[in-house]
Amino acid sequence: MEKEAYGCKKHETYDALMACYEKAASEYDEDVKVHRGYIGHETATERLVTTLKQLEFPEDCRILDVGAGTGLVGVELCKRQFTNVDALDASDALLKEAEKKGIYKNFFVDVLGPNQRIQLDDDCYDVAFAVGVFTLNHVKAEGAMDEMARVVRPGGLVSFTIREDVMFEQEYGYEAKMDQLCREKVWKLVSKSEEDYHSKTDIRKCYFYIYQVM
Ligand SMILES: C[S@@+](CC[C@H](N)C(=O)[O-])C[C@H]1O[C@@H](n2cnc3c(N)ncnc32)[C@H](O)[C@@H]1O
Question: Which stretches make up the Methyltransferase type domain (predicted)?
Answer without folding.
Answer: 64-159
